[in-house]
Amino acid sequence: MKIYFMKRAAIDFFKINIGRLYVNYYMKDDNSWMEEEFGENPFVPFMEIPEFEMAPLLDDMTVGGIDFLNCKIVYKNLKILSESQASDERLWAGLCNGTFYKYVRQRHGYNVSGLKNKETDASGILSRFFFSGGTRSGFYRNTISKCWWVGRATYDKNNMTNHFEMLDSIGANDLSTKISDIFYSNTFASNPVILKGICDALRFFNDRGIRLSVHDNIRPALRYLNAVGGATLLDVLSSAEIKDIMVKRLSEILKGEIDDIEISSDESIEIEEDDNAPTINSGISNEDVEIKGDEIANLDFIEEESSTEDLLGKPEFVTWGCYIKLHMEKENKMITYHIPIESDKSRQLWLIEKKMLGKQVGHRVYLSGSWFELIEFGWDDDFNE
C-alpha cells in the first residue's frame, strides 16, 4: 500500500476554508471532493509499505477498545517511521484524508451523524484529520497520529513475551482520558523509565482485580507524581521507585486516607470522551499544583517487606492474587488454594478457584461429591500457614 503526504499548501487551504468545507466530511463517502475543491491532487507519494488494516469498527466495540487496538496496529506497521517523519503533519493529514479517509470518517461516526454546531463540528474535523493546537497537541489529537505515538511510547522491543505489555497495563477503558493525562498533559511518556513505573503500578492493581477510576484514582495520583517532580528529579529514580510512589499514592486514595492535591491554576483538562466530543487539552504543570504539608519532604518509597494488606487493606471478596482456605466437609479437612495474579498465565484456574472468585466468607459450593465452605481469604502475599 502507498502512503501519501498531504501537500502543505493543501493543508493550509483546507484549514483556512474549514468553515465552509467541513460539511463534506459528513456528506461525502470518498475524498474525491478534495481535489475538486483544491484544484489539483492534494497528495504526493511518500513511501510504500505492506498492506494492513485498522481495527474493525464493530458495534460491540467501544471507542477506547478501537483506539487501543489501533495503537498496536499503527505502530507495528509503521515502526519504520523516524521521529522526524512522525512529527510531520503532512504524513498524518495524508493518512487521515487519503489512505484511511473512509475509516477515520466512520470511526468518528460522520457517516451516520448529522450536523450539529458549525464551530464544534469544524473544530472536531481539524483535530481529527489534521493537527490543531500546535504540533505536540496534534500528536495526541489526530486520529491516527495519537495511536502511533502511544504505541511507540509503550512498545518494549526487549520484552519478547509481549512487546505491548505497558499498553495492556494502561488498558482500553477510558483510553482517551488516559492518553491526555499520561502522554499529553504531564509528558511522562518522554521518559520511558517513568512511563514503565506508571504502567507497572497500574498493572499491580489490574493483577488483583482492582479497577481504578481515571478521574477519581489515576488522575489524582498522576498529579501527585507530577508535583513530586517539582521537588525531586524523577529522572534519577528507577521505574521500581516510580511504581512504588504510584502504588502507595493510589492505595491511599482508594482507602480515602488523603485528599487530592490542590490545583492553584484555574486551568482544567478537557479530553475526548467516548461520546466523540471534540478534544481540547490543557496541560497542568507542577507549578500549578500544591501538595499539602510535608508530603514531598517526607516521601518514602515502599519497602520490600511492605505487605499487600498494608497497601490495599483486606480484600472485600475473593479476587486474583488471593489465597483461599476452604473446609471440605466430606473429609473434614482444610484446603488452601493460591489464586495467581491475573497476568500470570502459567496455569489455568482450578474449577473451585473459579467458583470462589467474587465470593465472601461463608460461601458454599458442591464439587466432587463434597461441600466446600470458604473459611478465610486474603492477599496471597500476606499468606501465613
In short:
The chain is an alpha+beta fold and 385 residues long. It is 42% helix and 11% strand.
Describe this structure in words.
The chain is an alpha+beta fold and 385 residues long. 42% of the residues lie in helices and 11% in strands. It has helices at residues 8-16, 18-21, 23-27, 32-38, 63-77, 83-86, 89-99, 101-107, 118-129, 135-139, 145-154, 165-170, 175-185, 192-206, 214-228, 239-254, 308-312, 351-356, and strands at 2-6, 43-48, 262-263, 289-290, 322-328, 333-338, 364-367, 370-379. The strands form 3 sheets. The chain has a 4-stranded antiparallel beta sheet with strand order 6-5-8-7. Strands 1-2 form a two-stranded antiparallel sheet. Helix 15 (214-228) crosses helix 16. The longest helix is centred in the middle third of the chain and has 16 residues, at 239-254. The chain starts with a strand and ends in a 6-residue tail after the last strand.
